[in-house]
Amino acid sequence: MAKGPIRRGERRLPLEWLGILPFAIFAVLFLILPTMRIVIGAFQTADGGFTFQNLLDLNTPSIVNAYWTSIKLSLISAGLGCAIGFAMAAAVVFGGLPKGVRSPLMTFSGVASNFAGVPLAFAFIATIGPAGLITMELRDVGINLRALGFNLLSFWGLVITYLFFQIPLMILIIIPALDGLKREWREAAAVLGATTAQYWRMVALPILFPSLLGTFALLFANAFGAVATAFALTGPQLNIVPIKLFAQIRGDVLGNPNLGFALAFGMIVITVIANTIYIVLRVRSERWLK
């Protein structure tokens, strides 16, 4: 009789794991195997031999500039996304806005945080591009955005475009952290004579700091790996790593796919570091908010 439940438990185990089998298959086919191919290709010559030359070739002015431009683009868009998203989330959670505002904002944020690529680029070009709707309307009233120095098809135009999905992603992540701030902490600070500014500076922000820094790292990785939006918006005229990688893999520039693998390997290293920072700080933040 004692062996029956054990056998049933043993028979049930494969069925319990069967539910995540599709995820495991997709992860292996579209994440693990391609990543292994990139890592191996970064250390191979065209005929399959082992070499470090591909990584050494990354130390060229054009590629170094591409990495620096990508890092700067990611830092700026992540910083602005965190600042604006945090302000919007705090207004919803603590600002006394109607309760009906939160649900539509969260729904929109869920959609917008995944709206990228060619559709996003087209939407911005049609709206504030050189011949976009708002650009033409402003020109009719005497405001010429191009004359004022604004160009959507540029570095800062790409920053503005990235904010469309960076800000909603920040809202989605930081609102649960703001909900985790206990009302008792604010009441205790008020009883001790702390002002609202002192509460935020000495209590709330130190507790939220791991979440803020971790979300910044996630937004940095999110922007650093984006390629479709950048390529559709600016084409090859903006020297960033994803566009240079795309050109290398297609063979448009030097026809060296292994150098493209080395470029991708560098991107993987940077995004892994950023995501590791996010995971570590997220765990620490959840421990603080419990």
The total strand number stands at: 0
Query: Gyration radius, to the nearest Å?
Result: 24 Å
Give the name of the CATH architecture.
Orthogonal Bundle
Q: What is the CATH homologous superfamily assignment? A: MetI-like
Number of domains: 1
Pattern of helices and strands: HHHHHHHHHHHHH
Kindly, what is the distance between the CA atoms of the first and last residues, rounded to a whole number of angstroms?
43 Å
Estimate what percentage of residues fall within beta strands: under 5%
CATH class: Mainly Alpha
**Based on the structure, what is the oligomeric state of the protein chains?**
single chain
Question: Helix content range of the residues, please?
Answer: over 70%
Structure description:
This protein is mostly helical and 290 residues long. It has one domain: MetI-like (MetI-like fold). Helices cover 77% and strands 0% of the residues. The protein is built from 13 helices and no strands. Helix 5 packs across helix 8.
Q: Which features would summarize this protein structure in a list?
A:
single chain; 290 residues; mainly alpha; MetI-like fold; 13 helices; globular; MetI-like
In short:
This protein is mostly helical and 290 residues long. 77% of the residues lie in helices and 0% in strands.
